[in-house]
Design a protein that fits this description.
The chain is mostly helical. It has one domain. The chain contains six helices and no strands. The longest helix has 21 residues. It starts with a helix and ends with a helix.
Length: about 100
């Protein structure tokens, strides 16, 4: 899966992830949006920074039961996507968040 599609799918799964990612990276929400939608590719250096910030956002989301449940619902919806790459990523996310919910509960 290309980096932009992976970022777009990750942003779709959680509510407020664009803002949280922008805060974690100390950039604007517009930058995050243009990066996920733009025509230019994402360099390996940028991708490393983005994935690091994505992990920070996910760790923060794991503190809230409501966020966990919301991510499970969104990942389940995305798992029915016609695009096999989005479907597979969503299934991985679904497994991860169900596991987190089991540990929190």
């Amino acid at each position: 899966m290309n980096k932009k599609k992976q970022l777009r799918t990750w942003l779709d799964i959680g509510v407020g992830r664009g803002t949280a990612l922008a805060n974690a990276m100390r950039v604007s929400r517009q930058f995050i949006h243009s990066t996920s939608q733009g025509k230019a590719g994402i360099s390996d250096h940028q991708w490393a920074a983005i994935t690091f910030a994505m992990n920070i956002v996910e760790l923060d989301e794991m503190r809230s039961q409501k966020s966990i449940e919301h991510n499970i619902v969104k990942a389940a919806r995305n798992s029915h996507n016609k695009d096999s790459e989005i479907k597979n990523m969503s299934l991985v996310e679904l497994d991860k968040w169900v596991d987190v919910l089991g540990r929190v509960a």
